[in-house]
Amino acid sequence: MNSKKIINWGVIGSGGIARRRTIPEGIIPADNANLVAVYDLNSQVNQAVAQDFETSAADNIDDLLNSGIDAVYVASPVSFHLEHATACAKAGKHVLCEKPLGLTVKEAEEMSNICKKEGVLLGTGLMMRFHAQHELAKMYIQQEKLGTPVYARAQLSCWYPPIEGAWRQDPATGGGGSLMDMGSHCIDLLEMFFGKVKSVNCIINNNVHSYKSEDSALVSMIFENGAMGTVDTYFCIPDNSSKNALELYGSKGSIIAKGTIGQGSIGEMIAYLEKESTLYDKQQARSNGNGEPMIPRPVNTYHAEIEEFSSAIIRGSEPRNNAEIGLRSQKIMTACYKSAQTGKVIDV
Ligand SMILES: NC(=O)c1ccc[n+]([C@@H]2O[C@H](COP(=O)([O-])OP(=O)(O)OC[C@H]3O[C@@H](n4cnc5c(N)ncnc54)[C@H](O)[C@@H]3O)[C@@H](O)[C@H]2O)c1
């Protein structure tokens, strides 16, 4: 147990999602976190971030690591995750690394091992697990309100046209395209709801954009519990056209959501539950009810992620989104890309 009650944070790669979401919505408002310093390869951007959030701009990673921090949020491009997490761990700093944990399973394992060896915690930025509606859906499934899990679908897409030098558009710097970037969140959420994925069958394509990473991916999967699932994720659908569907079906009902997957705190989620066991309806009339809206108090996922990781450091135990979850996600991604390459179903 750490006697500290406030965790001092540094950030590597301050100019992207860190600036847009994690610093203003997570680190700044968290009760148990304090932003001490930020670092970004782009020093102009870094100065601007430091000014925006009234914190110090470190000139390099060593200066950041020597600024009295306890933990680092690593939000640099994926190809730098291992290097940055390793530097933090060797300096005795806990690491909350954005997903994915490096480019490959090997990198994720290396990151996990070095953090273990140096005695620091490693967390994975799969923050959509903290969404209040996702937590409530998980509770419904645990309480068997859906009966036997049958089928789950998750979708996350955006419009991502070719941009010169964009790291996500080349697997060498992003690890993959829409599947690695957004599909990883979707599959992770489906594992949160239905448990472990047993095998995957995946197709990827470049349907609209001609960059090196895929702009389209479709994964079908079977879970260890026998349920089935699909994830569809595209870089070539306009933002407003993708409603980021989440659908969870069981033998006693379903949960149908729009817009809960993503960076926001609230979407639309409705449960359709059978009160009693139903008989076969020859008419297939489907008239019974409008469903039960699921509207828990919204939780900002970045806020929850930072507070939970800070409290894991304070209590001296694993964070909820630990290295295991990040490593698992990376293993499923590898299985998906292998399936896409070989045309075969791949066991995870
Ligand atoms: N959980 C989420 O909601 C979410 C959303 C977006 C991105 N992400 C993840 O966050 C990470 C960053 O994505 P992004 O969208 O912020 O990317 P980005 O390109 O918008 O920002 C990355 C920042 O890192 C800086 N940078 C680049 N190389 C660096 C280096 N070697 N050292 C230090 N800084 C460096 C860049 O200058 C830039 O400011 C990725 O892992 C991505 O998957 C997570």
Task: Describe the secondary structure blueprint for this structure.
Blueprint: E1 7-12, H1 17-27, E2 33-39, H2 43-52, E3 56-57, H3 61-65, E4 71-74, H4 81-90, E5 94-97, H5 105-118, E6 122-124, H6 132-142, E7 149-155, H7 171-174, H8 178-194, E8 197-205, E9 216-223, E10 228-234, E11 245-250, E12 253-258, E13 268-273, E14 292-293, H9 301-315, H10 323-342, E15 346-347
Parallel strand pairs: 1-2, 1-4, 2-3, 4-5, 5-6, 7-10
Antiparallel strand pairs: 7-11, 8-9, 8-15, 9-10, 11-12, 12-13, 13-14
Helix pairs in contact: 1-9, 4-5, 5-10, 6-8, 8-10
The structure holds nicotinamide-adenine-dinucleotide.
Nicotinamide-adenine-dinucleotide binds at residues 12-13, 15-17, 40-42, 45, 75-78, 80, 98-99, 125, 127, 181, 263.
How would you portray this structure in words?
With 348 residues, this protein is α/β, with parallel strands linked by helices. It folds into two domains: 119 residues, Rossmann fold, CATH 3.40.50.720; 166 residues, 2-Layer Sandwich (Dihydrodipicolinate Reductase, domain 2). Helix content is 34%, strand content 23%. It has ten helices and 15 strands. A nine-stranded mixed β-sheet has the order 14-13-12-11-7-10-9-8-15. The chain has a six-stranded parallel β-sheet with strand order 3-2-1-4-5-6, with helices on both faces. A hairpin with a 4-residue loop joins β9 and β10. α4 runs parallel beside α5, α6 packs across α8 and α8 packs across α10. The radius of gyration is 21 Å and the shape is globular. The chain starts with 6 loop residues before the first strand and ends with a strand. The model has no long low-confidence stretch (mean pLDDT 96). The site of nicotinamide-adenine-dinucleotide has 20 residues, from loops.
